[in-house]
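Support request from a user on the community tier.

User writes: "When I paste my structure tokens into the form, the page sometimes reloads and wipes my input. The last time it worked, I copied everything first. Here is what I submitted, just in case something in the input itself triggers the reload:"
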């Protein structure tokens, strides 16, 4: 009994020693959040305190009370500080990267090209500006034969430069200019045999029927004539001499049959002269040869053809070409 009374008497003393007081009503005044501070070493803007941000995201903001002394129920979370406005998050000002820094050009006008121009370019500029006499002075830099070609090319180039869309009449004029240019180029180009083949029949230029590639010719035997060979030869870039009403060309052709050792076994045509007369200047033409084979042993041979241009304007130009064929056993 004495021990029980002592415990009741000691309880108030224990509570006073522990710092506890009896519960009483209290009021909490509205407290404004502390102003954010900025560190001198930080390059960024002020940042809201983490506990205030967490509380603002967890519970909706309470509108400000018209009476700042209004009491708040004791059930309110004591760790939450009332805010007058929602916190504003300011993103950090990250400095831009070096590749994002593009300085504006000091001068937007492109620099003038001071590279010296070719005489041909200067001549074209003069023709576009209708300064033809000055254009001829620039063309004197080139040789006489080249000046003739350039004088035909520059008007055509100026036509394209001044007229974005050519009409049929423009193309007709351009065709005439190019035809004259082609005449000049043909006589100055390499004389060449462009095609040579054995044929079943030959009618005219570019109209013929070719023999098969595995055809074997039959040579002559005592008392029997050999197979007749029909050869089509096409050539280009030959000269033409303009006369009063026609164009003339002089050609010299030589045809030989050579064995596998390179020895001429049959000089078919040592000198075949051709005197061409045409009403129009031609850039390509043909000659045909027809002859019977002589007595030849079976085996492989070559037909060698050489054509020489003996027209005064193209004298000294020539071309040679070979064509293999096989002679069958009798």
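"...and here is what came back when it finally went through:"
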């Amino acid at each position: 009994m004495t021990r029980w009374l002592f415990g009741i008497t000691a309880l108030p003393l224990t509570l006073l020693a522990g710092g506890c007081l009896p519960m009483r009503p209290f009021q909490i005044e509205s407290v404004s959040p502390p102003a954010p501070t900025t560190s001198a070493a930080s390059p960024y803007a002020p940042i809201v305190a983490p506990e205030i941000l967490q509380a603002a995201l967890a519970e909706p903001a309470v509108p400000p009370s018209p009476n700042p002394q209004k009491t708040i129920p004791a059930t309110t979370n004591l760790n939450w500080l009332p805010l007058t406005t929602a916190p504003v998050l300011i993103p950090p000002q990250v400095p831009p990267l070096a590749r994002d820094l593009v300085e504006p050009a000091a001068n937007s006008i492109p620099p003038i090209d001071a590279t010296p121009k070719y005489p041909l370019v200067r001549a074209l500029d003069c023709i576009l500006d209708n300064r033809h006499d000055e254009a001829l002075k620039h063309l004197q830099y080139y040789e006489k034969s080249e000046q003739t070609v350039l004088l035909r090319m520059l008007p055509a180039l100026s036509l394209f430069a001044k007229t974005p869309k050519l009409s049929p009449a423009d193309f007709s004029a351009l065709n005439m200019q190019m035809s004259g240019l082609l005449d000049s180029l043909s006589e100055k180009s390499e004389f060449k045999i462009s095609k040579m083949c054995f044929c079943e029949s030959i009618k005219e230029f570019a109209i013929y029927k070719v023999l098969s590639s595995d055809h074997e010719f039959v040579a002559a035997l005592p008392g029997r004539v050999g197979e007749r060979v029909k050869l089509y030869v096409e050539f280009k870039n030959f000269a033409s001499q303009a006369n009063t009403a026609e164009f003339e060309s002089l050609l010299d052709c030589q045809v030989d049959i050579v064995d596998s050792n390179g020895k001429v076994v049959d000089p078919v045509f040592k000198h075949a002269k051709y005197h061409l007369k045409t009403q129009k200047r031609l850039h390509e033409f043909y000659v045909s040869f027809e002859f019977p084979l002589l007595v030849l042993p079976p085996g492989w041979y070559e037909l060698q053809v050489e054509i020489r241009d003996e027209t005064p304007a193209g004298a000294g130009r020539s071309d040679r070409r070979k064509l293999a064929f096989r002679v069958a056993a009798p």
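Agent notes: The reload is a front-end session timeout and is unrelated to the input. DSSP finds six helices and ten strands in the chain. The first strand starts at residue 192 and ends at 204. Escalated to web team.
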